[in-house]
Design brief:
The chain is an all-beta fold and 48 residues long. The protein has a domain of 31 residues. Helices cover 0% and strands 21% of the residues. The protein contains no helices and 4 strands. The strands form 2 sheets. A two-stranded antiparallel sheet has the order 1-2. A two-stranded antiparallel ribbon has the order 3-4.
Amino acid sequence: MRRAYNSVMKLPQISACPQCSAPFRSHRVCPSCGYYKGRQVVSVTALA
C-alpha cells in the first residue's frame, strides 16, 4: 500500500530554449546561452 506514490513520480520536463534552441529544464536559466524569459541573466563564456 505504501508504493502507491511511485506512479506519481515523473522525470523533469525538458523544453527548447527560444534563443538558442538548446534543451533546458523549464523555469530555469538556459545553461548554454544564459537567457531566461527573453533577457540575459547570466553571461556564459565559451570554454577553450
